[in-house]
Amino acid sequence: MGRFEARTSEEAGEARVILSGDCDLSVQDELVTVLLAAVDGHERVVVDLAAVGFLDSSGVHSLVTAHHTARERGGRVIVAGATGAVATVLDITGVATLLGEGAAVAAEEPPAAERGTGG
């Protein structure tokens, strides 16, 4: 796939960062800059990985860095659209669980003891 590109848009108060190409060490600084800029202005940031063909440990590190920064500010980073080898990397590293849509729902849901049983 090759050449890395990042575009950011805003929809309904959340940032959507659309990545394409290869996310590797050669683009780590640019990737971190884009992700942190999105986190800085939004409570929820969705990172669309549908057009990413390669993701190495530096790309994973960038996503986790953005996640920690967002959490410190009361926000969320969520990954979406990963397929193939990129989805496998996210699964193996646990980032799919940490930053997946299901993780966002679980983080917003109160613990079972607080929800009550309604009975």
Automatic annotation (TrEMBL):
PROSITE patterns in the record: STAS
SUPFAM superfamilies: SpoIIaa-like
Pfam families: STAS_2 (PF13466)
STAS domain residues: 4-95
Domain of life: Bacteria
Residue stretches in coiled coil: none
Name of the featured protein: STAS domain-containing protein
